[in-house]
């Protein structure tokens, strides 16, 4: 039998390693929370609120506090409460968010960014926070629900 050359072994090992990495990178997660919104499954964002609000906890048309539906995510429920004044979002807060274990830290990092993005955008069309994909998707759905309640 012939002995294999060290170069041949190195080439085979390198090829096997690259093949393994390609296979690992081609794996897809079991569910993609952004797929529904990317495919147009979510309701269109509401950019401005109609003056027919008033179903919230505040007084006056187009003003008040509106709580969106709780949205279950892989790591726990997310629920958003909006404060609307003059047809504009003046405040946003997550009244429910995933907690426990690593979720507590992810939530503590992501929720303030999501709250600020909601106020800045004035709509549910906000970017997801890196590292908090599921929480971001749930936040956006609950935000849209609160906007729907505020805008009629």
UniProtKB/TrEMBL annotation:
Q: Which Pfam families match?
A: FMN_bind (PF04205)
UniProt region (Disordered), positions on chain = 34-70
Q: What PROSITE patterns has UniProt attached to this entry?
A: TAT
User: Which InterPro entries does the record associate with it?
Assistant: FMN-bd (IPR007329), TAT_signal (IPR006311)
Q: List, as start-end ranges, the regions of compositional bias called Gly residues.
A: 53-65
Q: Where do Low complexity bias regions lie?
A: 34-52
The record places domain FMN-binding at: 74-150
Q: What is this protein's record name?
A: FMN-binding protein
